[in-house]
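Hello again, I could really use a second opinion on something today. I've been staring at a protein lately and its backbone has me curious. Please have a think about how the structure follows from the sequence. I owe you a coffee for this, so here goes:
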Amino acid sequence: MDGSAQIRRLDRADVDHCLRLALDRGWACERTKWNVLLDVGEGWGFDDRDGELGGAVILMRYDDVAFIGMLLVRARLGRRGFGRALMAVALERAGPATVLLYATAEGRPLYERLGFTEHAAATTYEGRWQSKMPAKTAQCFTPAQLSAGLFDQLVAADAQAFGSRRESLMRGLLRRASGVAVHRANNNLSFAIAWRNIDIVHIGPVVADTESGALAVVGALAGQGRMARIRIDVPEVGPFTGWLSAVGLHVTDRTPLMRRGYGNAFAGLSKFYALAMQATG
């Protein structure tokens, strides 16, 4: 790595730099995603000699588990050790936590050299909602309508499913969310959050005690915006994914989940139906 490149902490003022870096690598210009990540996570990067952001990485820390995402290095600086240097900073900041990441094909060889092994995968579904199923069993809220008590219940349900408490992530998503759906049955709570990223509505996280609860909250949010393109990232294959295909969504990608260490991430995987986004879990 070029010794003149100093890795520094990124903040919300770097969003435009991150967007130009992403475009350099052919990634989408995802302003909402970068705003969330730099708001609630740790961003690290370095400037190139032209004053542009030369590389970046995001670290999300949750109790004894951490997620790494958005590892990017400007194309003309590739294969010079910058990606490994950024990963070294992220891993040092993660400390003894179990570290997970969703790996691109380009990044996987580096992650394997750093001791990561494939653990599972996420399947991405996208498309336009085609179901006419009524969604009267779930209640929809705007973020402003959520009471403090209900917010605490959502955070607790997410923590039970994910395995770590993620209150800061939930707050960051809700600041930019278009809607929240909640379903209650037999003292069980299910919920989903919808947030717009460019021209796609992401639905996630989706947490539910039962598949019927997951279908209720996803259907309620997706049914509100039938003209919008929807994306859902599902951490495992099961009956829920068959239902997504039946309502007009189709598989666009499968991304390996890699891990280093053995923490409690996705402790209640049977209740964790969709990720917030791959960079955060």
